[in-house]
Structures are given as structure tokens and as C-alpha cells.
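A further point concerns the way the authors explain their paired sequence and structure data. Nothing conveys this as quickly as seeing an actual entry. An entry of this sort, consisting of the sequence and the corresponding C-alpha cells, reads as follows:
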Amino acid sequence: MRTDKKVIIMALLGFFVMPICAVIISNYYFSRSDRKVEVRQKIDVKDEVVGTNALSIYLETAEGSGEYTLSDSDVFLQDGYYFNEEKSKCENGGLLSFDESTGKVRMTASASDRCYVYFNKGPSIGKVCKNQNLAQCIKENYTIDGSIYYHNETLDRGAEDNSYRYAGGHDTVNNFVCFGTDAENCPNDNLYRIIGVFGDKVKLIKYDYATKEQFGTGGDYSREVSPDATYYRGSQNKVGEYYWNSANTKWSKSKLNTVNLNGTYLNNLGTAWTNKIATTTWNIGDTVSGWEIMFNNAKSVYNIEFVYGAYDTYEAKIGLMYVSEYFYGSLPIHWYKIASTTAGIEDYSTAVDDNWMYMGLSELPISAYVYEPCEPPAPVGPAGSGEEDIFETCDDLYNAYYIYDFGYVGTNSKDVGSPIRPTFSLIPSVELASGSGTKSDPFRIKLT
């Protein structure tokens, strides 16, 4: 009997519902008993056992859950599932692949092996978009994912900017991306989530809060703390707190911006990854008092941040989320609610269960306000006298908004430390390499 490399084809019968007892394929067939597949070679009328391989088949319990149950049915695979290439593995080096045209999994092995085959439930943008431009494919196929909303002029209370934004609960939105590493199991610090597609760019936000190791202890670093577990949804033991701007100046001069985000953090990612990040114009503030965002709904806040203009702009790769992005991360039923508490109107603390962007700690968005009209008085001396700059400038009139731990948006001084989650946009040419978007099987992008 030949002992060189054998190609074993295991029939999972049917991407559609098909019971299985024994399947003959070419010179091999398989019988299933207690989830064990005995591999036999057919030689005329005599069967000879050439190896025994244990095969375990796992089906996702619900679409997007990331949880799987061991299949004990005679039906290997049902319609509405798709092969999870990243999770499907063999213990002894066997290689698994799936032929969608035949609905069969193929295992190539040189010895007996134990394999685990995973199938996800439902359609997946990750499956559709593999090896394609990610931004374009999401825009063309967003309807297969019920958690993506197209913000055109017909979407009630939407941004009307033709963006495609993810919205829904923390554990139901499958928009995870592994960025900054090619490790097989993506570390927590490398998990990001897709805010949406804006124009031709996919925008990401870090899944969990920043650590001082990632962003440094210089710049606008405040301190390191242990997260309060009351509302926290992440898994960090320690997080770094940073000031929006400890020097009381605007964002373009903030050390959080220039030193921590676009310095230490960006450099720590490495050139190959930073080359995938687009330079963005960040617009900051067009309010003259905190209530202009605190007592407005999603669409009004979006207009304040993006339509009416800005007191400060800055071009850089890395920033923080906008308040309107946080608003639109919740289901549309909450978009009429206002940011902060006031009598008789629901605020965004009632939307946290339906908002994947809410992570449970008080954190900084990039949004700020000018709490007095930005009209500096005339200088006290003529140009060149040395006295022309002795007056209060607009730089001293900024304060920050905060997303508080119980979910609503308020204001605070910009020199109060708080956790942060960086955001950035990928360059338009980024393609999807693999993944289904779940936390356990995040999207992977191509580096070359």
C-alpha cells in the first residue's frame, strides 16, 4: 500500500440540506459514526482501512454570534452556512479547503489527523468581499448585513452624507478588523471595529481603550488606571488616561494629537501598517457653548460637526471619534434622542444596549467647543512693537466633550484625563484578505 502523501476528500454533503451515511468519491468514501470519519480506500471488492481521522464539525449558533456548537446531526451542512476558513484547522498539519460548487471540504494530509471544521451562519460581507476592494464591496453589498445603514437623503434622521455606517448592539455587529499584526490569533490590542465607509475610505476605531505602552507617557499623558468594571465592556487590566489638551490650546496644538496619537502610537504600528492609513482633515468645533451638542440629536450634532464649519482643522492620520459617530453607532430608534439629560427627553444613556461604540468608560471624543465667541480683541500695540500679541487668543477658549461611563454626552475641562480610542481611515485601495468580521474571526486586510 502506498504511504506517500494521500489526498483525502471528506464529503460534508451538501451546502444544502442532505443526509449522509456513506459517500463514495473517486477511490475513497467516508462513513460517519459518533462524529468520527473512517477513511477507507476501495480496492475492487475488498475494503482496507488506511487510517482513522477524527472530524468534528461546528456550526455557529446564530448569525454573528461567534459561538459554535458541535453538530450531532446526520446533516453535515445546511443551507445558510458558509465555511470559516480561519477557524477550521487540523492538529497534525492537514490542510482544509472548501469547494463551494460541490459543497465539500477537502483535506490534504500525509498521515491520520484530527480536524475541526467550522461553519458560520448566514451570508457575510467578509465572504463576498474576499480579495476585493473593501470600501467598494461594502457599499455594493451592504444589504446582506442588516447592521449597515446607508445614510442617503431618504434615511430618517440619517447624516445625509452618503456614508455607510454600522449600527447595533455590542455583540451583534460583525465589524471587527485585525490591524497591526499578522498573528494567527489577533491580540486584543490589535482589534479594531469599522465605523463605516465614508467616500472611498473605511474608517476604524480601536476596539478597546489605549494603554500607556501604546501611546506613551509623554505628551498629554495623565495616569494609568484599572478600569471600573461597573459598565466596562473591554478586557484591559490597565488603561492610560490622557488630556484632550493640558496646555489649554486647540486640537491642532494638542500634544495628545501631535505626540501621543500621531507620534508614539503611529510609530509603534510600523511602516507597513501606517502606509495603509490615509491622511485625514480633522474638523474641530463649531459651537460657542456646550449645550449645542448636549441638547441636540444625532442629525443636529452631525451638522454642527461637519456642515456648519469648524474653528480648527488639522491634517493627520490619527484622531478620535466624533460625537455624531457615537450617536450613529446606535440603532436608528435612538437617533432622535439628545446627548445629555434634560427634563422630559430621553438622552443617550438609554441607547447603550443598542450601540456597539459604547464601551463603558468615560472617554474623549475629538469634538470640542469654543465657550465664548472666538473674536479676540485688537492688539494693544502696533505691529513690531512687541506688544501686539498681548491679548487673549482663541486658543484659550476650547473645552472638550466627554462620553460618560453611563452613555450620555456631556462636557468637561480639556485638561481632565480620560481613556481614549484612536480612529483612522484606511487608504482607498485596501483589499480584504480573509475573515468574517466577528471578534473571533476578524477581517484581515492585505498588506501587499
Notes: Residues 1-52, 387-392 have pLDDT under 50 and may be disordered. The first strand starts at residue 6 and ends at 10. Residues 6-121 form one domain.
